[in-house]
Amino acid sequence: MKPLPLALGISAALTLAGCATPPGPVEVTRFVAPDRMAQLGQGRIFVETAAGVQEDSLALAPYKAAVADELRRLGYVESDRGNAGQIAQISLERYVIGSGGRRSPVSVGVGGSTGSYGSGVGVGIGINLGGGPKDRLGTELAVTIRDKASGQSIWEGRADFQPPENSPLARGSANAQTVASALFREFPGNNGETIEVEVTE
């Protein structure tokens, strides 16, 4: 699969070469309702935590802010829930992959699944890293955009990023902006397609 370049004007950290190990790609999978394409990228939208997520506002806040920034860039107007025509629901999972390849959760107070992601078709996202001396700190960000009136999902996306734990892109706002930018790259994308978006520090 041909990697796509990722333009991220987010912080000087992205231009640093302080980490010898490449941070790896962001793997992105998206689903689009073909009959609702015209609704995407316009109108008023409200960003909220997905149902079933154990919300930790401090941990989730940079990801909600990064998603909101991307939605505004695409042409949406952020609104309160009462005046919004669409709802963007966000869930987040952080995890560690040790040198043996074992995936363990990170206790950041957020987690859970995205429910009907991919219209009930389970999509397991994982990158075979081949081991290594350093742990990787993974982020899986999922966003579902729903029509508020009907509750129907019109777009769903999931981004999975596994940089080394000592990478400047592994935590905080740089991590949030990296995965959100990759998730919404060439929005809305093709239905059911998985791409890899290359990231450099």
CA-CA gap between termini: 21 Å
What percent of residues adopt helix (DSSP H or I)? 10-25%
Shape: globular
Output the helix-strand order: EEHEEEEEHE
Radius of gyration: 16 Å
Structural class: alpha+beta
- Number of distinct beta strands: 8
Let me know the largest β-sheet: 8 strands, mixed
* Low-confidence sequence ranges: 1-20, 107-133
The CATH topology is Rossmann fold
Strand content: 25-35%
* Whole-number count of domains: 1
CATH class: Alpha Beta
The overall average pLDDT, rounded, is 79
Give the count of helical stretches: 2
If classified by CATH, what would the architecture be?
Answer: 3-Layer(aba) Sandwich
Topology:
Layout: E1 26-32, E2 44-49, H1 57-74, E3 77-78, E4 86-97, E5 103-105, E6 136-147, E7 153-161, H2 172-183, E8 193-197
Parallel strand pairs: 2-3, 2-4
Antiparallel strand pairs: 1-7, 1-8, 4-5, 4-6, 6-7
Task: Describe the protein.
With 201 residues, the protein is an alpha+beta fold. The protein has one domain: Rossmann fold. Helices cover 15% and strands 28% of the residues. Strands 1, 2, 3, 4, 5, 6, 7 and 8 form an eight-stranded mixed beta sheet that branches. Strand 6 and strand 7 form a beta hairpin. The radius of gyration is 16 Å and the shape is globular. Residues 1-20 and 107-133 have low confidence and may be disordered.
